[in-house]
TrEMBL record:
Comp. bias intervals (Acidic residues): 44-58
Keyword Transferase: yes
InterPro entries in the record: Acyl_CoA_acyltransferase, GNAT_dom, Ribosomal_N-acetyltransferase
Keywords: Acyltransferase, Transferase
Organism: Streptomyces cyaneofuscatus
Protein name in UniProt: GNAT family N-acetyltransferase
Entry's EC annotation: 2.3.1.-
Domain N-acetyltransferase, residue spans: 78-244
Catalytic EC class: transferase
């Protein structure tokens, strides 16, 4: 997974989705490896799965303007939408994963109260302008299977980060790739973000492969970049510029 951004303290209620998002993002190009959905990346906590990475839980609110989190199709099988209190079963499953609570603010010991606080933090992120947190939901049964977030702390410097995580029941279905393509294309084309970046632990080859498939470039290794559990760990950084050309076979508007 890609590492998420840190959650702000609880604040106002949710910013509801009132505007339809962009259409479906096409499937990965022929010849790409199937989505193994290994483990979360490390940068988001869409909280959300890194590239099959972890959430970016290090971003703090960039400004006071509230954001409206849209609903978006991530191909024919998944949708991205704002978090709801009905998503507590997803948080319960994520809390049982050995890695997700280390890189996000998902509670390591589940309780309904802790899970509700987690959802409120996602609402607060949008309300304070920190970023766009999405739940990833399977279309056929409306079951949430993961999270992804676009975090805007560094947007004044022309860059934003994406983080995500996926629970075991959602892995191996191509959902991480589809979600990352959707948020990436939306951020570059619709929002005009100049640069997107992901932070992934070097061992997380599945997340790294997904990032490269979507169009991100491996740019280097950041030593001791992020605390994961009780230790600081290295993170590989992957970047994609608005001027790089194409995402998912579609042109990206130049800034």
């Amino acid at each position: 997974m890609a590492a998420p951004a840190p959650d702000p303290q609880p604040g106002p209620g949710p910013v509801r989705d009132t505007t339809p998002g962009p259409g479906p993002v096409h499937d990965a190009p022929p010849g790409t490896a199937p989505d193994a959905d290994a483990r979360p990346g490390t940068d988001p906590d869409p909280d959300p799965d890194g590239t099959d990475g972890t959430d970016a839980e290090t971003d703090s609110p960039p400004g006071p303007d509230p954001l409206t989190v849209p609903s978006m199709s991530a191909g024919p099988d998944f949708v991205l939408r704002p978090w709801e209190m009905s998503d507590l079963p997803l948080i319960r499953e994520a809390a049982q994963d050995p890695y997700i609570p280390l890189i996000t603010t998902v509670p390591s010991r589940y309780s309904d109260r802790a899970a509700e606080e987690f959802v409120r933090r996602q609402w607060d992120r949008a309300a304070t302008g920190a970023g766009y947190p999405f739940a990833i939901v399977r279309s056929r049964d409306r079951r949430p299977v993961g999270a992804i977030g676009l975090w805007l702390r560094e947007l004044p410097e022309g860059r934003a980060s994406i983080g995500y995580w996926m629970v075991p029941s959602g892995r191996g279905q191509g959902v991480t790739r589809a979600a990352l393509r959707t948020v990436t294309g939306w951020a570059l084309r619709d929002l005009g973000v100049p640069r997107l970046q992901l932070f992934i632990e070097p061992w997380n080859t599945a997340s790294a492969r997904i990032a490269v498939d979507v169009g991100y470039r491996h740019e280097g290794l950041l030593r001791g970049w992020q605390r994961v559990g009780d230790e600081r760990r290295d993170m590989a950084v992957y970047g994609l510029l608005n001027s790089d050309g194409q995402v998912d076979g579609r042109a990206v508007a130049s800034n």
